[in-house]
Each structure stands twice: as structure tokens, then as C-alpha cells.
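Recall the central idea of this unit: under ordinary conditions, the amino acid sequence of a chain determines the structure it adopts. In this exercise we apply that idea directly, starting from the sequence alone.
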Amino acid sequence: MPNSSPSAPADEILRIEGVDKVYASGFRALESVDLSIRRGEIFALLGPNGAGKTTLISIVCGLVNPSAGRVMVDGRDIAGDWRVTRSLIGLVPQELTTDAFETVWNTVSFSRGLFGCKPDPAHIEKVLRSLSLWDKKDNQLRMLSGGMKRRVLIAKALSHEPRLLFLDEPTAGVDVELRRDMWTLVRQLRESGVTIILTTHYIEEAEEMADRIGIINRGRIVLVREKAGLMRELGRKHLTLQLQHALPALPPALQGLGLELGADGAELHYTYDTQDQGAGMGALLETLREQGVAFRDLRTTESSLEDIFVGLLHGSQA
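Accordingly, the structure predicted from this sequence is:
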């Protein structure tokens, strides 16, 4: 495995600078994309269909040429040092493209050879065992289920021991149990030093696994943020108060405070920023007490990453 280039920051494995992609038809798939990926992190790239996720991955992996900009992998330009940079990258594509009549062992071993790596049966065995494919090693791919075929794609991507792994919709079409298994595998890969970039339509995957979140829409990066910080900054809490006695309408003193009646007057609803330190909430409850509005129960819920994602997309389309 090549050593890191002296020009690469110690904590950075991928840098994308000013990348555009305009196809011959005139369609602009990417516009001025800048992105830096830290070594050893799990980075989730979210966006709707057609946002540019797969195009960006394809450019980094050398499958598509950018119209402008440059991409550096471990300090090396992918255009000028493509052989080395490509050997550092593993790609698990969306499509289940496999040779139906080849065996699992042969297809994974062949993939390793494509990168000029010497045969290493011990490594191939380790990869297959980690993906629960060892007992399928002599099976032809056409005999496998869709979930198992997707595991083979991951095994192929890991066959040459990459340091940067792209997972493009890795759990699309697989059952919940297999999805959980893959989440476990991704964490294990990160612990072994592999940097993971995944695209997904399953918001819970990003919420469960990612260290940072990037959102792309209409070919542009909308934001990049630490997951926890993003949810603190943009998340909101929702307070529901179950009243002891239903109200026919909000008393005048409670109007203008952002309260809404629900459940035929039996509930009060209040939404507030997660950064609220509690002073506003205390004042609200005191006002309710002063107005003789008693409640028998309260509960709070917090915005999910999906709520935040949808809100940001709506904002970027305004």
C-alpha cells in the first residue's frame, strides 16, 4: 500500500475542489462541488434521486471525467496519478452487476488481480468470512439471493484492501436483518482504518452510523456538518401537554405564544428550538399555571434527521 503523499494533510484522505460535470446534452449534473473527507470517518452523502450523488462518486472513482475542477486522493491528483489513486479506492455500486456463472471465490479473487495485487487467499478468506460468504465460496453467483449478491459486491470492493470505500445505496432492496448486518460491517471496517462514504435513501442509516452528514441537491452541496451538531442546530423539539380539562379555544393570554390546540381542545402543542436552554419553557409553564390551565401529562419529541433533511431540501429549492 502506498504511503500518504507529503502534500496530503494527515487527517484528510479525499479533497474535491470546484468539480463541475456537464454532459453532452447540456445537463449540469454537478456545479462547483467542494468537499473534504477526513481519514477514518463515516461520511453520509444524502440527496434525492438525480441530485448528483452517483455522478460525484463516479468521478472520484475514475469512471466519469469532470468538466472542471480536481480530485485529490491521499494527496494525489486522480488525473495525473490515476493508477495509485484508483488502488486506494473501493466501490460498491448500486447495480447488481456480476458474472452469473462465476463462483464467489473466483470473482472476488479476480477483482483483486485487476488492481495488480498479488494473490492472497488468506485475505480473500477473511473478507468472505466477514461477510458471511465463506460457505458460499464455491457457489455460482446466479445461485445467490439478492442480498448475498450485494455482499459479493462488497467483497469485490474490499479484495484489494482499499483505504477509501464508497457504498452507493448499499442496502437498497435488502431486508432489515441484512441491513443491520451491513451496518455492523461498516463499523468494523472503520475500526480497521477504512474511510467510508455512503449514499443512502434510508435516513436512519445516516442517523445510525455517520460521523458527518453532507446534503447534495441539484448538483450542489447544500451543507456539510457533524451529525450531532446538525441535529442540535437545526433540530426542533415538540412539546405536547395533555390537559386535565379541554379548552374550547386558547385564552387571550396564551395567544401569540406559538401554542396550538389539538385533540378537540384536550392537548396543547408547542414547538421550540433544541438550543433553547429551558428559560422559555419555564416561562411558558408558569403562564399556563397563572391562567389556571392544568395538565395531567406532557411529552417531548425531537426532530429526526429525516425532518431536518426534508426541511433543508425545501429551503434549497426555494
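Confidence is low (pLDDT under 50) at residues 1-6.
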